[in-house]
Amino acid sequence: MVSNNKRKIILINKNFQIKLIFKFIAVNILILLIFGIFMYLFTDSEIDKNLFTAHVTYKNMKQMILPIIVTLSTINIVVSSIIIYIFVLYASHRIAGPMYRFNAILDAISAKNLTGPTRLREGDQFIELSDSMHRLVTGLADDIKSIRSELDRAGEDAESLKKSMEKINEVVGKYSI
Fold first, then answer.
1. What are 131-146's pLDDT values in tens digits?
2. What are the start-end ranges of the H helices in the chain?
3. pLDDT tens, 111-131?
4. CA neighbor of 97 nearest in space, from 168, 15, 160, 11
């Protein structure tokens, strides 16, 4: 059976995803600035070594190379930032989606609703956490069903009331509160 649960909204947890994107872009800019500085220093030293053979004055060569380095570095920063933005946006979507889903599941549990789905989509991150959440909700739902069943039986007669109360205490005794 094929799931039609396609990812249509990419920015699910906007704050988290945008911060992550800008952190990656900041690291990229820092690396590229360091690259530009080293490239400039390297070409500057090469010009010093070959100044007399190039028949070009040092000042003119330096003035000629600096705009080229700045332009290439700027283009490199813009292009790599766009690529990183797109990559991190899609990569973080596989994290932000499950975070949003877990928040919705926990809100439902807080509202005493144990009927909602607790599974994630195929390919999302945190599948193990989703499985644990599913076991938690299923276990709680089973225990509550057991308590309800015992309460229904408790009204039949005094002997069944005693047995039902023992079973209810057994179920409730599993929890630390």
1. 888 888 888 888 888 8
2. 14-49, 51-54, 58-110, 127-154, 158-172
3. 888 887 777 777 777 888 888
4. 11
Q: How far is Cα 101 from Cα 104, in angstroms, rounded to an integer?
A: 5
The Cα–Cα gap between 82 and 145 comes to 53
Over residues 65-83, the pLDDT tens digits come to: 777 777 877 888 888 888 8
Mind giving me the DSSP string for 69-100? Answer: HHHHHHHHHHHHHHHHHHHHHHHHHHHHHHHH
- Size of the chain, expressed as the number of residues it contains: 177
Give whole-number Cα distances, 70 to 32, 37, 76, 80, in Å: 11, 10, 10, 15
* Contact by Cβ (8 Å): 140, 114: yes
